[in-house]
Amino acid sequence: MQSPALLLPARPSNEPESLAEYCSRGGYDGLAAAKDKGAAWLRQEVDASGLRGRGGAAFPTIRKWQLAADAVGDEKYVVANGGEHEPGSNKDRYLVERHPHAVVEGLALAGLATGATKGYLYLIEDMAGPRASAEMALREANEAGLLPFPIEIHCGPTTYVAGEETAALNSIEGEPAKPRKKPPFPGEAGLFGKPTTVNNTETLAHVAWIARNSGADFAAIGTEESKGTLLFTLSEQVEKPGVYELPFGATYRELIEGCGGGLKDGHTVRAILPAMSAAFLDGAHLDVPIAYETLGPLGSSPGCGGVRIVDETTDVVALTLEIAEFFMKEQCGQCPPCRMETNQFVHILKAVQASKGPGYDAKMTRLANFSKRKGHCSLIEMAAAPVISALSCFANDFAEAAGPGAQES
Q1: Which of 306, 281, 294 is closest to 230 using CA atoms?
Q2: Integer Cα distance of 270 and 282 in angstroms
Q3: What is the pLDDT of residues 13-27, one digit of tens each?
Q4: Is the peptide bond before 60 cis (omega within 30 degrees of 0)?
């Protein structure tokens, strides 16, 4: 499938894109158009585009914007969320470090669309390269008089949950980076209690492209319900690891073989984990178009595009335990159901690994069903998705590891 380069244009250099280089390909033309045509025009274009959030949840961008735009208040905020800390995903770091002006322009546009008076670019403390690039871009944009309101960089802690949108707001306020209970939603009462729009950095880079071109042009790329392109991260498992951009409707085979050059050492794909917070897909789904409407019925999602590949050498029980231990470590501790679920998943999986896991399947399924939607954020569902899907995708591996009669409840 031909891959339109909306966010990652071919460049002769790996250095951060300068203001001059960005403007040479139409950078900040969308911001100029929005200043001229107004916030309502910009919201209409984003609505027409069908753009969804690229942080993993895929929430319609226009719905967030409209909530904040409709909120009453003279003081509003907008936040670009680059708090990426999911193992296997490197796309936000890459985007901010290589193309910081696209994120800055998108942030300014989101602020214009929602009536923001100040913006923040939220990164995490170990993002030295992206932070340096963002500082350069903000300095250049300020000196050129391009920004309609002040924008600051804030770095949160290096924890997974700190990337959740309300945890990011708490961090900016100087509080512990833990999710808030919703409602109220940030568009109603966010940063410092004021209406706030929080969008992923990839989402905002797409906004810059949409404003420069059109919502209709963006909607023409992808599938019926999944518009535009998505950034994917491929790990060292493939011959050519890195961050790649593909339109929705492409397949994991095209991503792994066409972009990544196939698996190293001649290994074959047994299953795919589209993102750590998604559900496993077996190798038979390599040619299923990547889209929300195609992966949803399979119980999975494109997530944030941090692809993990299972080959014939992978110990899938150990891999599932590794994922469960990550979520157990990274949950923030404030919601008892989440603490219970993540700890019990690890306890049961360790028993399976030690061939002492009677009833493991039923126990983990009951635990996941009991815990649904009982946390302040969606980590409780994120932790369950890969574990529960692994039980069916790799049923024989688990049964062999657990020993005879282990599935009896």
Answers
A1: 306
A2: 6
A3: 999 999 999 999 999
A4: no
Tokens of 403: 């020993």
pLDDT tens-place string over residues 235-264: 999 999 999 999 999 999 999 999 999 999
Alpha-carbon gap, residue 370 to 345, rounded angstroms: 13
**326: containing domain:** 316-402
Global confidence as pTM: 0.95
Look up residue 263 and give its two tokens: 């698996």
Claim to verify: residue 54 and residue 131 sit in the same structural domain: yes
Helix intervals (H) in 177-251: 201-212, 215-219
Task: Take residue 68 and report the two structure tokens written for it.
Answer: 């904040």
3-state secondary structure of 31: helix
397: its two tokens: 């591996």
> What whole-number distance in Å separates Cα of residue 12 and Cα of residue 8?
12
Which ranges constitute the DSSP H helices of 71-214?
A: 91-98, 100-114, 128-143, 165-172, 201-212
C-alpha distance from residue 341 to each of 367, 372, 401 (Å): 6, 10, 22
The verdict on residue 254 lying in a domain is yes
Q: Which residues pair with 119 in a beta bridge?
A: 78, 151
What type of residue sits at position 74?
A: D
Secondary structure element (H or E) that encloses residue 151, with its range: strand 151-156
Q: Are 206 and 233 within one domain?
A: no
